[in-house]
Amino acid sequence: MTAMLPVMPTFSAPDGTRLAYRVLGAGDPVVCLPGGPMDSRYLGDLGGLSRHRRLIILDLRGTGRSAIPEDPSSYRCDRLVGDVEALREHLALPEMDLLGHSAGTNIATQYATRHPGRVSRLALIGPSTRAVGMEITGETRRELARLRQDEPWFPAAFAALEALTEGTGGDRDAIAPFFYGRWDTTARKHHAAGRPGNEQAVALFGAEGAFDPEATRAALIGCELPVLLLAGEYDVNSPPGSVAELAGLLPGARLVVQPGAGHYPWLDDADRFVATMAAFLG
User: Fold this and answer.
1) Of 3, 25, 43, 275, which has the fewest CB atoms closer than 10 Å, so is most exposed?
2) Where residue 253 sits, what CATH number does that domain have?
């Protein structure tokens, strides 16, 4: 039997750039925004969440099957918000459940503050705090990393993390084990397949003007949306303490820390992740 491939339709962004998205599963839609910016395929089907909801997974401009824009400044995070609104209009959704992962949560957060009437639920997985101007210190990351000191890969990975967080160099690939609850064959394959393919998109995502932390914070304080923030217990990218601080900005936010998980909690414990998400999304 031939395996069913995900549907890969396209639509036009406000500036005419052709953007693609994947459709997985059935039921009520959840629009999903990847991090990176990188090919959205690293999200998979979010551990089987597609069995509960129809996942609409956007390929951010210049990544995956989406086209490279003529104007490189459109890679900026605030500009990507317009792409999400164009996708909503293309799908003819009066409002939508919105899920963001990692850097994609900056897009989701800014979208929710700019278009509050268009979001019914907001799920932030391994969230970044850049949109609200919250700095995560190197010591915070190192302190969390020390929880893994009994792992055989720890010495080399921690040395690289120290160098990166202290600004003295360091190999980003060497710290990959800290992003997973288990540094096993599955994690290694996922990491190898998930490197960003468009360095310009990555470099310009947070360019000057991409974020307005003061305005975003002010808008979030008045946000009445149901919001779920999910952090992995061991995630040095989005430490649970920092995610808890972000949750404190949102009056109706619920914080969940998934035990034993890193930055990709659907890989570390798919059943637990899907149960949490399905309960929140309904």
Assistant:
1) 3
2) 3.40.50.1820
